[in-house]
Amino acid sequence: EVQLVVSGGGWVQPGGSLRLSCAASGFTFIFSAMTWVRQAPGKGLEWVSIIDSAGSTHYANSVKGRFIISRDNAKNTVSLQMNSLKPEDTAVYYCAKGPVWSPNSGTYSRGQGTQVTVSS
């Protein structure tokens, strides 16, 4: 059974930083791409960042240059370092198994979300 346990999140002022982590189990992590997905209030899901099994990374334009995704295959974890946070980054953030380019369609494994709130 795929399990994805997210930690981190919380409240931060604009311009601040937060780090999210996702501990994965139940599948062969080193062979799997991983995705961070978010859902802002009243909006659909959107992919934020993807890291493939080789460590190549992809970022949504809205977070490029501010967020950094990384993975630790020894610990089966994927992290998202979020810098220069903006109010529009406020959302519930999820960790997902695989390259999830279209999180509003198809089926995929997704962990519980963590709230990130950016406000003054």
Any overview of this molecule?
With 120 residues, this protein is an all-beta fold. 0% of the residues lie in helices and 47% in strands. It is built from no helices and 10 strands. It has strands at 3-7, 10-12, 18-25, 34-39, 45-51, 57-59, 67-72, 77-82, 91-97, 114-118. A 6-stranded mixed β-sheet has the order 2-10-9-4-5-6, with no helix packed on it. Strands 1-3-8-7 form a 4-stranded antiparallel β-sheet, with no helix packed on it. It is globular, with a radius of gyration of 13 Å. The model has no long low-confidence stretch (mean pLDDT 96).
What descriptive keywords fit this protein?
10 strands; mainly beta; 6-stranded mixed beta sheet; 4-stranded antiparallel beta sheet; 120 residues; globular
* Number of beta strands: 10
Order of helix and strand elements from N to C terminus: EEEEEEEEEE
Instruction: Quote the distance from N terminus to C terminus.
Output: 40 Å
The Rg value, from CA coordinates, equals: 13 Å
Strand order of the largest sheet: 2-10-9-4-5-6
Shape: globular
Structural class based on helices, strands and sheet pairing:
mainly beta
**What number is the mean pLDDT?**
96
Are there runs of 5+ residues with pLDDT below 50, and where? none
